[in-house]
Amino acid sequence: MTIHRTLHLSIIGCLLLAGCGAAPSPTNLVILSLDTTRADRFGSYGYSSAHTPNFDRFSAGSVRFENAITAAPITLPAHTSIMTGTYPVFHGVHDNDGYVLDDGITTLAEILASEGFVTGAVLAAFPLDSQFNLDQGFASYDDDFQSDWTTAENRARTPLSFGFLERKSDRVNMAVERWLDTNASEQFFLWVHYFDPHQPYNAPPPYDTQFSESPYDAEMAFMDENFGHLMEMLSSRGLMENTIIVVVGDHGEGLGQHGEPTHASYLYDTTMRVPLWIAVPDDEFAAGSAVMSQVRTIDIAPTVLDALGLAAGPEMQGNSLVPLLYNPNHQWNRDALLEANFSWYHYGWAPLRALRSDRWKYVLGPQPELYDVSDDPEEMVNLIERLPEEAAVLNQRLNALVEATAARDLGRSAATVVDADTRLKLEALGYLGGGGDASIRVAPFPGPDELADMVNPMDQWLVMTFANFASEMARMQRIDEAISIAREGLAMDPGNHRLRMVLARVYAMRGLIDRSFEELQAARALQPDDPESYVLAGHIRMAQREFQQAQDEFRQAVERAPQVSAHVFNLGLAYARTGDFEEAISHFQAALELDPNSDNAIQELAKSYSQVGRYEEARESFQRALELNPYSPSVLYNIAVFYRYLGEDDFSRRMFQATLQVAPGHVAAACQLAELLHADGAHPEEVQSLAERTIELAPDSPWAERAQKLLDSQP
Ligand SMILES: [Zn+2]
Predict the structure, then answer these.
(1) pLDDT in tens, 254-300
(2) Superfamily of 420-629 according to CATH
(3) Ligand 1 centroid distance, CA of 142 (Å)
(4) Which of 178, 242, 291, 389 is deepest in the core (most CB within 10 A)?
């Protein structure tokens, strides 16, 4: 315990325990996580081309950590480490795909909720969807990525992009504002997630043209603008004076360095070194200074608990950084454990582990690497041959650290089945998966001999780049380029299941269905037991409105992985589309038994009930959907339609209004609200403005025709 720390705790203590001095108010906590954000792209971290004025201003009022290291270069494991204060070898979440955080692990949100904090999270992308169980402890966990989309944006989505998997930071802010309006009067913990710098790099104007040479920097600039708005939201509510604010990257982005286009496969500082700022509401802390010592993202949870005067969770493996907040030069020396398992699970290449200290990074893989990161921050010179003794010492330290931190149960957070639907969604975000074997997810890290015989992922960057590039082109709707790149990659590696799946998807997007199915056949020949090709085939048939064939494909997926809720749900949806609502109902019920929180299944179940006249059950299901997701435009809209159908116009009108409140660009809601008001005869001006809005938003739609009729019949 240092003097600084004691002093500081008494000050925060004052804030917590009313009665000592002025304006005693409880201290809140905001953690903002920046996905895919490199530390070295901020002005405050020395980037000369930066356009990050809001972050730089925040940096001037907080402590900046120059060498903050994440635990894994991929979203779900990295965030799980932040939110539990433990390494992946302990919490057991090693990938976005195939893991559901064990209920027995205590999260920061659970601790703060038990201390009486109101807890909320607003997420920006599917890898943090509540199905992966990082919502433990959050009273509200907003992963409705579709809310606040405009109709034009809705219409631009293709069926094969799998709906709404991410939202930009301006939309995240809208949800944050709603949450603060409801909750900021109590002591709160709010986690906000921004996803903008993640692929695809498609920042909106003016940043797209202003930074046309560097689309990644364009996303950074766009995110910076919204960070500024977020800070305004807090300060206009007077919350800056009593809120601890942590801003942290979950991992970086390769941007082509070391041959890595994005992230997840390697352990270089391009993806492992993240931005980290902490600001506490205390005049005494060292605002504006930088800490040079290495710290880890697992230190964040113990730090904020300490700053709030609370003890760290008993399992937490990080250390409180509070001493560094008061004295940036405080003696500090902690190793960091790093892991990259993605290539192992998805390509069968070797996994990597590394130990990083203030001076060294030792990477354990088929060909170990050693860098002097203090002298060679870009990791250009591998010293492994030159310094074998140093490497041997670091190898021992790495093994000891794993030994000290790993859980005994390797499979504690591993899912036992392959959820092909989830994987396709992750792939649509650029996480090119594959590999149908779930058992690898509970396998121990390979021993030295086994490891030496495995393929070194560092040698595979070309195949990785082709697969990534093809998928990226597909996401940008540059289909011809995607097809030719994927075919080039397959020419190099014809047995690559991943590339076959990418090609199947892009052929389908181009409308070349036969060729798409040829690729799916080839993929099935490579991995017959994997449900993924059947799920994709089912989605393609649904997009073609061939619902009978879609049933056949989804049924094959269910046979291969019957415990996966999404597979059963898909089959139910295909039944509903053919009008077989009784079959649909039984499948939606089965999907809900597997995953009681599946809001898709609840909504579709409610709609099917109402189709067959089981109105009471429909009412109950809609009620449940609303409880799970009170701000979801699709839930609100479907309820409105249902009650309109029942003739309960007053309630229906209120639900259409609520829909438009969360999604002002919802065309169908605008049009139907106009119709209801018109029938009422009391609100001609509102009818006119809603009808005009409908026509403006979707001029070629049937809704526009209906709106025009209203306008024509207005007096
Ligand atoms: Zn991420």
Answers:
(1) 998 998 889 999 999 999 999 999 999 999 999 999 999 999 999 99
(2) Tetratricopeptide repeat domain (1.25.40.10)
(3) 17
(4) 291
